[in-house]
Structure prediction request, 193 residues.
Amino acid sequence: MTTRSQLFRRAPDWFHPGSSRRSRIPDGLHSWLFETGSLTRRVRDLCGGEFRLRVLQQDWLRPFADESRALRLRPSRVALVREVSLQCGEEPLVVARSIIPASIRRGAQHHLASLGNRPLGEVLFSDPKLRRLGLELAVVEKAEWLPGSLDVLDTVESSERIWGRRSLYAIAHGNLLVAEFFLPSLLKREASL
Prediction:
């Protein structure tokens, strides 16, 4: 059976942006964590013609317990779990994990289950009814990532922490979760421009 995640040993520890941990957000990362528009479009702009989406996993699986709670799914329910890397060429800048409940697949957004190499953000942000219902943050230590989950983690120092955000979105036939994690290579590339 496919594992719940190709990225994490366990679910990240999410917290609300108003928490005292917010004050420790590294310079340059604040605008990425609180981006209100399409993150895919912003990464695409940063990469230019080198933008690439790499699908790491896409399968019907049981989400982590906290993801099921956030989506009000019974723990035994499966959802489409999609993990991707947003890259400039072969260099991963952002990894994302999306949880799309089966109820959405049966509605008008049935095409969300067959995105292939098309970014989810392009589809979501083209929907005028899209609403963000909530935002949480997480800090993931290198030890919490699965070994070999991404080639770039070999270049991440063991002391480096990777920040992420998780958005709960409402669309026509239900809610879905999108979590994005900002790799150190993102800020390095942005600073080099």
Remarks:
- The chain has a mean pLDDT of 83.
- The first helix runs from residue 30 to 33.
- The first strand starts at residue 51 and ends at 61.
- Strands lie at 51-61, 79-88, 91-101, 131-141, 161-171, 174-182.
